[in-house]
Amino acid sequence: MKVKTQSCVVAGKKTVAVSDQEIEWNNKGTLVQITRGGICGSDLHYYQEGKVGNFTVKAPMILGHEVIGKIVHTDSTELKEGQAVAVNPSKPCGHCKYCLQHEENQCTEMRFFGSAMYFPHVDGGFTRYKVVDTAQCIPFSSNADEKVMAFAEPLAVAIHAAHEAGDLQGKRVFISGVGPIGCLIISAVKTLGAAEIVCADVSSRSLSLAAKMGADTLINPQHDDLALWKAEKGYFDVSFEVSGHPSSITTCLEVTRAKGVMVQVGMGGAVPEFPMMMLIAKEISLKGSFRFTTEFNTAVSWLANNVIDPLPLLSGEYPFTELEQALKFAGDKTQAAKVQLVF
């Protein structure tokens, strides 16, 4: 069955369009009518620079990996037409050594929505209709707020980062960089039992959002003194670095207590001046955090059951036909945290 759709496509730097396309559903997998999607930092990079890291757009590609929708047709007996679902953008191979160990986020053949890593590129979810593997569809109650449920993917990233830190019950936590992911990490660690949450950012707007998301103390490292947190080899049991900036990495190592844990979430390039001796001497456990595994299902459950409220982070909504305006607004960090497209 051929299905006509309209898709939000990037073809290069500052080159985007809403294009008419045709897809085919052949009774395998699930055909989803996309209803809403959140714009992520990678979508902005593809728009602003035509690439993410070394992955350059070489042909028109559909953007987006934070999407929800409703089932149109499915090959599953457990799902039904009209059912609301969050769409997991991860499609692991299922047979590599990491998939077999339930570490699917490390899959060597991962196909992730809206990625120029491979060529042909992997199309994303910013389209009115999309065929996905049935396993990628995580149902939720039709009574749930779609604005809330569209946060499933970034919340999954935050929960995974929190899990990487280990047991957070009663722990003192430092979060450096409180954009949307940093703010969702606040909610995640609070839900998982953190006793104290201190957040740092150079943006007063981001810090105000962090307060709404549950931070106990706010710090602007450009003019606030962190000596108290650095004393006696550090104060915090766990730190999360969520900006990728070299100075933020150093700060996290300075304020994390000896034998503590630092989770690196923020992405960035090489850090030539990385304070290696501080990491060694304080015996800090440095952990990376990348995407998620089962945390996507956890995120859907938390959002559907009002465990956390992500809506303070929602800065704007645009019809998908106003794609470029939405991307421009989302790229203005003086105004925008999370921006959603409505299909």
From TrEMBL:
<feature type="domain" description="Alcohol dehydrogenase-like C-terminal">
    <location>
        <begin position="180"/>
        <end position="304"/>
    </location>
</feature>
<keyword id="KW-0862">Zinc</keyword>
<dbReference type="InterPro" id="IPR036291">
    <property type="entry name" value="NAD(P)-bd_dom_sf"/>
</dbReference>
<comment type="similarity">
    <text>Belongs to the zinc-containing alcohol dehydrogenase family.</text>
</comment>
<dbReference type="InterPro" id="IPR013154">
    <property type="entry name" value="ADH-like_N"/>
</dbReference>
<dbReference type="Pfam" id="PF08240">
    <property type="entry name" value="ADH_N"/>
</dbReference>
<dbReference type="InterPro" id="IPR013149">
    <property type="entry name" value="ADH-like_C"/>
</dbReference>
<keyword id="KW-0560">Oxidoreductase</keyword>
<dbReference type="Pfam" id="PF00107">
    <property type="entry name" value="ADH_zinc_N"/>
</dbReference>
<dbReference type="InterPro" id="IPR011032">
    <property type="entry name" value="GroES-like_sf"/>
</dbReference>
<feature type="domain" description="Alcohol dehydrogenase-like N-terminal">
    <location>
        <begin position="30"/>
        <end position="140"/>
    </location>
</feature>
<dbReference type="GO" id="GO:0050572">
    <property type="term" value="F:L-idonate 5-dehydrogenase [NAD(P)+] activity"/>
</dbReference>
<protein>
    <submittedName>
        <fullName>L-idonate 5-dehydrogenase</fullName>
        <ecNumber>1.-.-.-</ecNumber>
        <ecNumber>1.1.1.264</ecNumber>
    </submittedName>
</protein>
<keyword id="KW-0479">Metal-binding</keyword>
<dbReference type="GO" id="GO:0046872">
    <property type="term" value="F:metal ion binding"/>
</dbReference>
